[in-house]
Amino acid sequence: MRADARAAAVTLLNGYKTAHTGSLRQVYGARPKSIAAPSAFVDSIDEEIAYTPAGQQRTPEVNIRLVRGTFGTEDVADANDELVDGFIEHVIDNKHAAGPSTLILVTSVRDEDGWVPEWIPDSLPYYSTLVTLSGEGLFGGVT
Description:
Blueprint: H1 2-19, E1 26-28, E2 39-52, E3 55-69, H2 74-93, E4 102-115, E5 126-137
Parallel strand pairs: 1-2
Antiparallel strand pairs: 2-3, 3-5, 4-5
């Protein structure tokens, strides 16, 4: 199920990259070794698990990091807003990217100006946004 969530997120990111030439230089299914902004990657996957009489309900939440640049200037913020708005619209238009019985929803968006990837030594601070996607339906199916 987690692999399906990651694959659906990467499908959405690659679809957005293809549809909007120049919008993203990099798309990764996990945290990259280096960042060449603008880029996007699956930063983490959280999962809510509920137990019901029908069985176990797993609902993954995929946290996608959109990285626009290394400066917190108005130009970078404006370009980041355009990237985030465009990606959200792309998700809405492709809400069944994980399959016809699954609905992918954007559940939160959080800007992080000055975000520093802790796994990259001597990294610069980036202007980035964390977009959380959640699956409803068979994607978060009962097992």
